[in-house]
Structures are given as C-alpha cells and as structure tokens.
Amino acid sequence: MNDRVIIFDTTLRDGEQAPGFSMTTEEKLQMAQQLARLGVDVIEAGFAVASKGDFEAINRIAREVKGPVICSLARALEKDIEVAAKALAPAERKRIHTFIATSEIHMKYKLRMEPEEVLERAKKAVAFARRFTDDVEFSCEDATRSDREFLYRIIEEVIKEGATTINIPDTVGYAIPEEFGKLIEDIINNVPNIDKVVLSVHCHDDLGLAVANSLTAVKHGARQVECTINGIGERAGNAALEEIVMALRVRRDFFGDLHTNINTKELYKTSRLLCRITGSFVPPNKAIVGDNAFAHESGIHQHGVLSHRLTYEIMNPEDVGFPASRRIVLGKHSGRHALKKKLEEYGVNYSEKDIERIYEKLKELADKKKEIYEEDIEALIYQEFLKVEDEEPVKVLHFQVQSGENLMPTATVKVIFKGEERTATATGNGPVDATIKALQKALGINPKLLDYSIKALTPNTDAQAEARVILELEDVRASGRGVDTDIIKASVKAFVDALNRAILRREYILQRKEIRREGTV
Ligand code: KIV
Ligand code: ZN
C-alpha cells in the first residue's frame, strides 16, 4: 500500500461555512495561494452552486492557483455538478466532489428518500461528474451512522460508475477512534473494488476526536485526510491540518513510512494568515500554532529545555515556521533591501511602487517606536498587501477623544456610511467605550459586542497594540482586528473591521440560506 497521505484542505469550503469565517473572493484567493505554498494536494475551494460569491472564488482559484488539484463540492444533482464543472473549468487539475447522505436518519428526515433512490441518485451523480473530469470524489454523508451493508453497496456501485476517491465523513463528530479505525478496515475488507480508489476520511470535532479519528483511519488504510487550517469548520470544526501533519511527522516511530507532502515550515504562517483574513484567533494553548505551543513558563521546564531541548520539546519550533519571538528585524535606518527580503519571506508579490509605499509606512512606524519587531512587520504586511477588502461600507474619517482624571470620557467621530457623512458625540465608561458608542450613534446601528480584547504585540510602552473584536449584527457574527501604536485607534479599527465584515457577509449568507433550505450540508 502507498505510504503517501494526501492532504485535502477544506478550509475554504467546510471551514468557511462556519459562522464568523466567511471570506471574500480576494481573501479566498490569498488563502489558496498560501495553501499551495504549504503544499496541500487538493484545495476544496468552495461549493460552486451555493452562491455567486462561491462560484467566483472557485473560478478565480481555478484560474490562478497552480499546483494543487482544485475541487468544488456539489450535491448529487446534475445542476450542482454542472455549476461546479463550470467554475472549475480553467483549472489545470480539477476534482468534482459529490455527496449524498447515507444514514437512515438523514435519508428519512432530510432527504425524504428511500435507500434505493439514494443509491440511484449517487450512481447517476458520479457518472455525470465523470463527463467533466476523471477525478471524481464521492462522499457518503453521515457515514459513521449509516448501515454498514448499505454503505458497502453504495461505495461499490459508485466506484463502478467511475468515482476515484471515496470519502467517509464523520459528519456529526460521533465516532470514537478504535471504532472508526475498524470501520475503515471493514470497508477495505468488504468492498471488492475498493483497491481502485483512494479511501479518504473527513472528521468533525464535536467530541474533540477529529484528529485522533483521522490518524487512526490512516493507520487502518485511509490515504486521504480532509482537514482545515486551525481546525475551523462546521460547529466544533474539522480535523486540524497542522496537527495531523505534525503527528505523522513527529511520531514516525508509530506511523512508519506514512508521510505527507506538506512543507511544515509554512504551517505557522498559514495559520496566521487565516487569522488575519477572518479576524479570528487561535487559543494560546492550541497545538502546533498557538502562542504558547513552544513557551516554557515553569522554572523546571525552562531549566530542562536549556540543559537539553528534547527534555520538554518533542518538535523544533522552526520546523513549523514558528518565529523566533520578539526578534528585532528592522531598525529605523534599515534599507529597502531588507524590506524586500521580508516581503519575499511572506510570499508577497510586490512592485517597486509598493516598496516605496510600505517603506514610508515603516519609517512612520519607526518614528513612533524605537524598534521594529517581526510582529510589527507582519502586521504591516497584512495591512498593506494582504487585506484586499471589498468596498468597505463604513469608513472612519476622523475621531477625537477626551479622557483623564476627573473627566467624563467623551468622543466625537465622523464617518462615511452608505455614501453619507455622519458625525456623533458620546460619553462612555472610558475612552474606548465612548468612541465605540459615538460610532454606533453615528451609524445608527447597534451590534451586540460579544468579545473585545487588546494586547501589546511587542515589549515596551511604545509597542503596537492589537485589538480584537467579535460582534453580532442581526444574527451574523463577525470578528475584526486592528493594529496601531494608539490603543484607541487599534480598537476603532478592530470594531469597524468586524462591522464591515458583518455587513458584507449578511447578503452572502442570505444567498446561502436559500440553498440550505433546499437541503444540503
Ligand atoms: O461533514 C460532511 O459530511 C461534509 C461532506 C460534504 C463531506 O462536509
Ligand atoms: Zn464536513
């Protein structure tokens, strides 16, 4: 059996479906370019029929991203498959991923179909998809709660129709590793033509077992893992790509020759790019990419690591691209050459004009703070190069705040909203509160603030502050971030960033709801 494990990334499809993670076409394109640098084998770029936005994003990724196979999800319906094929047309290598539910509960209550009808629909869908590409994946949605005999039968039949990958999703995150491993083994032993395809798994994390289930499946014969960066995805998320890849690599003694094609040094950068793009963040204790993943706080641990790194470290931080923290990278007088090198490290395509623009910003920043750190450069690069937003609905033109001992914090803001200039003044429980209240008054909208946090990116009181905001606007949740040496400015940027995302996403999500109503993932 081949020892290569195919990494199928679904950050842009299953991941993006989760509340607070939807992305614009430009953002998806940036993410896809980074996934290609990371070395994933397949990028599931979206669900073409779900919305105009999904179609456009898949189409642009298919046109512009070279290397990985580009894939679109499609229900087992001709209309979905046709739209997926159209979106994927420009790709050098394309895959159509069609699916239908196979569990009794899904067939009876969601699809309202008899098993025989489901079987016929699946066969037809695969045969139809083969007209457009010879790379067709079929998923038995809710496989882990499906009747075994029916599962074996449908898999055998769709392989006969030309499916090249068979995916076994644990759609509701119900499986336990030992049981899931056995399911994979049973499929291998009971489906006579299974050797003609790649067997894949797609695990959700509702019981916190998605990575464990995926790894057990690989150990029992699966050779494709569907996963997402930072484990984002529906509900509790999907299996985290970085954890699967590093487990296979660090525990070669257990997994033998099983390996992936991932350039692990790109893992940290990819995780951070996703956070920047979606305005989300990973918990500090998140495996592989969390801020504390390689931090040794206790004296005993520090002593051990200093004496011999392997006493408490099972992997090298550099192997996952974890930056040597708090390293000064550019000073006020550092040249354009150093800046270019940094941009290349981040995989950014730039022109000489871009260099001049960002160099000026860098000088402005260096005037405000003595030392520029890795984190400052990263923030600037994302702000200047990687954050290509759609037309922003809200723009802040100006704000002013008064605050101090025995003073009621008062803020005045001037914004443009729906093409109209608006001004408002408000008082609050501190300067940030006053400014946010003034903004809400000017805009005439009152989103529910779910979370707000602020932290210094680097040491010293002249550090840039990073503010994060999560808010909800009419059921649409969005997160935003803002970086500035001024903490109020950072907070305003984060609030407006989240608000703009929420406003832009509403329309997009409404389109998707239409599709969901027809009965889909
Ligand atoms: O979780 C699931 O079952 C899915 C399928 C569409 C693969 O996302
Ligand atoms: Zn899923």
Detailed description of the structure:
This protein is of the alpha/beta class. The chain folds into 4 domains: 6-284, TIM Barrel; 294-322, no CATH class; 323-386; 389-510, 2-Layer Sandwich (Double Stranded RNA Binding Domain). It is 43% helix and 21% strand. It is globular and about 80 Å long. The protein binds 3-methyl-2-oxobutanoic acid (KIV) and zinc ion (ZN). The site of zinc ion (ZN) has 6 residues, from loops. The site of 3-methyl-2-oxobutanoic acid has 11 residues, from strand 5 and strand 6.
CA gyration radius, whole angstroms = 25 Å
CATH class descriptor of the largest domain: Alpha Beta
Strand content bin? 15-25%
Question: Per the principal axes of the C-alpha atoms, what is the gross shape?
Answer: globular
The whole-number mean of residue pLDDT values reads 89
Tell me the name of the CATH homologous superfamily of the largest domain.
Aldolase class I
How many helices? The count is 18
Q: How many β strands by DSSP? A: 16
Q: What bound compounds does this protein have?
A: 3-methyl-2-oxobutanoic acid, zinc ion
Low-confidence stretches: none
> Reading side by side through the largest sheet, how are the strands ordered?
1-2-3-4-5-6-7-8
Largest beta-sheet details = 8 strands, parallel, barrel
Helical residue percent band: 40-55%
- CATH fold node name of the largest domain: TIM Barrel
The CATH architecture of the largest domain is Alpha-Beta Barrel
Distance between the termini: 32 Å
Number of domains: 4
Structural class: alpha/beta
